[in-house]
Amino acid sequence: MKQKKLSEKELAHLFELSKLELAEGEADEYATQLGEILNYVGQLSSLELDEVEETNQVTGLVNVFDEDNTREGLDHSEAMSQVPVKKDGYVMVKAVLGGGDE
């Protein structure tokens, strides 16, 4: 298989699409590396896969999630009875980001 190297125009277009900046002197190195990647991926098209069964998952698991079930929780007064510091029906905690004592 012929070794492909991206042209400067192709490389510039790729960098523009990906919102990356191409620094001076990097074009040749990236063109070679991306060309090698494309050549490697291109090898996949030469594989004989007619006899290979298609699959979209390999674990055999059907559903790994439990069913969503609701359950009774604490009412507000029960929950607040466990809170060490409260004010006006709210839980009071120390400032996390600073700027206050409460």
Automatic annotation (TrEMBL):
Q: Name the job this protein performs.
A: Allows the formation of correctly charged Asn-tRNA(Asn) or Gln-tRNA(Gln) through the transamidation of misacylated Asp-tRNA(Asn) or Glu-tRNA(Gln) in organisms which lack either or both of asparaginyl-tRNA or glutaminyl-tRNA synthetases. The reaction takes place in the presence of glutamine and ATP through an activated phospho-Asp-tRNA(Asn) or phospho-Glu-tRNA(Gln).
Molecular function as annotated in GO: ATP binding; glutaminyl-tRNA synthase (glutamine-hydrolyzing) activity
UniProt EC number:
6.3.5.-
Keywords for this protein = ATP-binding, Ligase, Nucleotide-binding, Protein biosynthesis
Q: Does the keyword Coiled coil apply?
A: no
The name on file for this protein is Aspartyl/glutamyl-tRNA(Asn/Gln) amidotransferase subunit C
The answer to keyword Ligase applying to this record is yes
**Which species is this record about?**
Candidatus Chazhemtobacterium aquaticus
Read off the NCBIfam families from this record.
Answer: gatC
Q: Which Pfam families match?
A: GatC (PF02686)
| One GO process term, biological-process aspect | glutaminyl-tRNAGln biosynthesis via transamidation
Question: What family classification does the UniProt entry report for this protein?
Answer: Belongs to the GatC family.
Q: Could you name the domain of life of the organism this protein comes from?
A: Bacteria
Subunit structure, as described in the record = Heterotrimer of A, B and C subunits.
